[in-house]
Design a protein that fits this description.
This protein is of the alpha/beta class and 315 residues long. The chain contains 10 helices and 8 strands. The protein has one domain: NAD(P)-binding Rossmann-like Domain (Rossmann fold, 3-Layer(aba) Sandwich).
C-alpha cells in the first residue's frame, strides 16, 4: 500500500532530474502517472523529443506500475488541457500535479535579451499558470486536488545572473499561495518547494576553481534529486491533507519551512501629521536601517550552508 494508491498524478519535466524521480517515486507509492517532458535542452533551445518522458513511463511500467507519457510543452495552454484529458482518458481522472518543468537562460541583467527574459518567464511562470488553470476547475468540482509548484532560492533570496529565473520563481510562490487560499473551501491544496539538488541545472553552473569543483563533487554525492522528489510526493498525498499555502525547501536530508513576507518594522506619524520627503530620509529610513537585508545570499542550512553565499545553485 502506498500513500498515492488510487490517485492519478501529472508530473511535468518528468524526463530528467527531480521530475524523473517525482514520477518514479509517485508510481512506487501507488499513483498512476502521466509523465510529461518536452525533451528539449536546458535552455529550451532544442526541438522536443518524446524519448525522455516515454523512457521514464516505460521504467514505471517495467516495475509493475501504470504510466503514460506526454511530450507537449507546458507553455502551451491547449497542450496542457490535452494533458489533463489524456490523464482522464487513460487513467480515469487526475488528482495532483507536480510541476518542476523548467529551463535556464542565465546572464547579468544589463546583458539580458528580451528572448532570455521571455523564454524563462514563459516556461516557469506561464507554465505554472497553465498547469494550474487547466486543472483547477476539475479539482474544485471533485473536491480533491493538490499542487506542488517549484519556486527557488534564486527568487526567495536573489541570485546574481538570474533576474529572469528569480522573478519567475518569486511569482510562482505568490501564485501557489493564492491558489491555496482560494482552494481551501474545495479541498484544493497548493504548496511550493525551493529544492537544492544535483541536476543538469546545477551542472550548468561554470566551475571557476578547484574549490568550486570540490563543492560540486560534494553536491553530487549528498544533494540528490530524489530527496526533494520524495518530499514533493509526500506533500501531494492525502496524508498531507492539512498542509497548504506553504513554502518549503529541501537540501539533502534537510527539510526547511520558509517564512513568508510580513512587516518587520513600522514607522507611523501621529494623527494630523504626515511624512515629508525630508522626514522620510532623516527619520523613517534610519529607524528601519538596522533591519535592512544585505545583498548577500542567505545561508540555507543543511548541506548547502557551507557552499558559500555566492555559489549559484539554481533549482
Amino acid at each position: 500500500m502506498g500513500v498515492l494508491d488510487g490517485k492519478v498524478v501529472l508530473v511535468t519535466g518528468g524526463g530528467n532530474g527531480i521530475g524523473r524521480d517525482c514520477a518514479l517515486i509517485a508510481a512506487r507509492e501507488g499513483a498512476k502517472v502521466l509523465v510529461n517532458d518536452l525533451g528539449g535542452g536546458l535552455k529550451g533551445e532544442d526541438e522536443g523529443s518524446a524519448g525522455p518522458a516515454e523512457a521514464v513511463a516505460q521504467e514505471i511500467r517495467a516495475a509493475g506500475g501504470e504510466a503514460a507519457s506526454n511530450s507537449d510543452s507546458v507553455t502551451n495552454y491547449k497542450a496542457v488541457q490535452g494533458m489533463v484529458e489524456q490523464a482522464r482518458d487513460t487513467f480515469g481522472g487526475l488528482h495532483a500535479v507536480i510541476n518542476p518543468a523548467g529551463i535556464l537562460r542565465d546572464t547579468m541583467f544589463h546583458k539580458m535579451s528580451e528572448d532570455d527574459w521571455d523564454r524563462v518567464i514563459d516556461v516557469h511562470l506561464r507554465g505554472s499558470f497553465n498547469v494550474g488553470r487547466a486543472t483547477i476547475e476539475l479539482f474544485r468540482d471533485q473536491q480533491d486536488g493538490a499542487y506542488m509548484f517549484y519556486t527557488s532560492t534564486s527568487g526567495l533570496f536573489g541570485n546574481i545572473g538570474q533576474a529572469n529565473y528569480g522573478a519567475a520563481k518569486m511569482g510562482i510562490a505568490g501564485l501557489s499561495r493564492i491558489i491555496a487560499m482560494e482552494g481551501a473551501r474545495n479541498n484544493v491544496r497548493s504548496n511550493c518547494i525551493a529544492p537544492v539538488a544535483w541536476t543538469r541545472m546545477t551542472q550548468s553552473v561554470p566551475i571557476k576553481d578547484e574549490a568550486a569543483a570540490a563543492r560540486r563533487k560534494v553536491m553530487a554525492e549528498k544533494i540528490r534529486p530524489d530527496q526533494p522528489a520524495r518530499f514533493s510526493v509526500a506533500l501531494v498525498s492525502p496524508a498531507a491533507a492539512g498542509v497548504s499555502g506553504q513554502i518549503f525547501g529541501v537540501s539533502g536530508e534537510t527539510i526547511m519551512l520558509y517564512s513568508q513576507p510580513r512587516p518587520i518594522e513600522t514607522c507611523t506619524k501621529p494623527e494630523g501629521q504626515e511624512w515629508t520627503v525630508d522626514a522620510i530620509i532623516k527619520e523613517a529610513l534610519p529607524k528601519m536601517a538596522p533591519k535592512f537585508f544585505d545583498l548577500n545570499r542567505a545561508p540555507q542550512g543543511g548541506a548547502q550552508q557551507n557552499q558559500g553565499q555566492q555559489q549559484r545553485q539554481p533549482a
